Amino acid sequence: MLITHYDIRLFYKCPMLLYLSYHGPKDEMSVHPILKTRKRDSQSKELTFKQLASRIKGTSIAIDNEKHIINQSWIGNRSYASKVDKLEKGNVNSPFDASIYIPTFFRSNARARKPLMMEGTFATYILSEFYDNPVDYFIIRSKNGDTEYPVENYISELTSDLPLIYKLKSGEQSISPNYTRGCRVCEWRYYCRNLAADTLDLTLVSGIGKRVKKVLFSHDITDIPSLATADLSTLKDEGLLTKDLEYFQLQAKSLMEKKAIIRKKMSFPTPKIELFVDVEGSSHHDFVWIIGCLIRKNGIDEYKSFLANSPREEKTMIVAFLDYISSIDDDYTLYHWSAAEPQYFINLVDKYNITRSEVHKIRNHSIDLFDIFKENIILPIYTYTLKDVANWLGFQWHEPLTDGATSIILFDNWYLRNDVKSLEKAISYNSDDCKALMIAKDYVLKTLS
Fold first, then answer.
1. What are the residue boundaries of the structural domains of the chain, listed by start?
2. DSSP state, 235?
3. Cut 0.90: pTM above it
4. pLDDT band at 400 (very low <50, low <70, confident <90, very high)
5. Which ranges constitute the DSSP H helices of 153-290?
6. Please, which residues bridge with residue 261 across strands?
7. Pairing between strand 3-4 and 80-91?
8. How many CB atoms lie within 10 A of CB 419?
9. How far apart are CA 9 and CA 382, in angstroms?
């Protein structure tokens, strides 16, 4: 059986994803709309060495002939194979001035996340082991130039994981899911969530990932009920913070009892005006397209949206929003979810060299509701997204299948295809986000005051 770069990428994204890609029940798949828009390397999934033999041989011949650049090359043998965007001839610092081939990957972003880091490490491993090509780094070529990534700290991890990757792909070994926030757009998200719920898996506890789960397992804390009743003092030498362990245990108790747990009370401001703000950006088009704002004054709320239909309108949008903030009474509080919204404003004023005074003022008047929930209230939910929290509080979006990722698709339909209905849905989704913020704020005011 052949292991390819595709398998490496899946494994380091999620071992369960690798297993399910080959052995999961296909009728349980639910492909998220945003995944349908991405070019996926699924062509590499079912390839055999027989299918690749001529391509691999072609690369070997090119290397033997010391061709300077080999584009879209396949390297490997009967066990391992990897596709590389470009192999480029370089020189090793040695008395013999020996040549090596450096694997290069073309990406829009130079950052190498773990799956790509291991994919690059896999390519250097194949070149070193089977081509007498002792290269110890790979390159990501982006619009900002070339970035080199040394692989010496990853080779041992890769080689120790290869037997498990083989067993998962072949089906010789199965694996339990780790349900985390990153699962939200995976095609197996519902299937894994149900599996995790059936076994009361530890990763249903917000904040517990593979590393913490492994530590807890070593102390016979293997599910949510055992975590809820565990003696935390036995874990004090495991490198886990006491405050994190206490949080995990409270979260486990909340899930078991199916009720909220209040950690501490707090006071809230009582401004004349409350603003509930949600910002949406299009990362692949590289601009912010909407600043949504629900304004509540004297018990009456009104939604306003500030739009940028294209990158050219982004500056006009942020200026209009800041002008609006300047026009209202200074006695206001702006509520948002996570640190993303204030950072959007800082990035935009820096981008267009706009005075920062109003943004500093906004920051001084802002409250992050996400932080309040994480610090003060434990809810019987798996992740603390605004949608999960608001859904638990009884709020429903008008588009029930829509989430933040899908709103990107809706905006794309408008931006690329002039689909007015999609734009209306995207704005409606943003409006619901702002209303969800208001629901969440009212809950914490009632609960924590």
1. 3-170, 181-259, 273-448
2. G
3. no
4. low
5. 155-170, 189-199, 210-217, 224-228, 242-257
6. 378
7. parallel
8. 16
9. 26
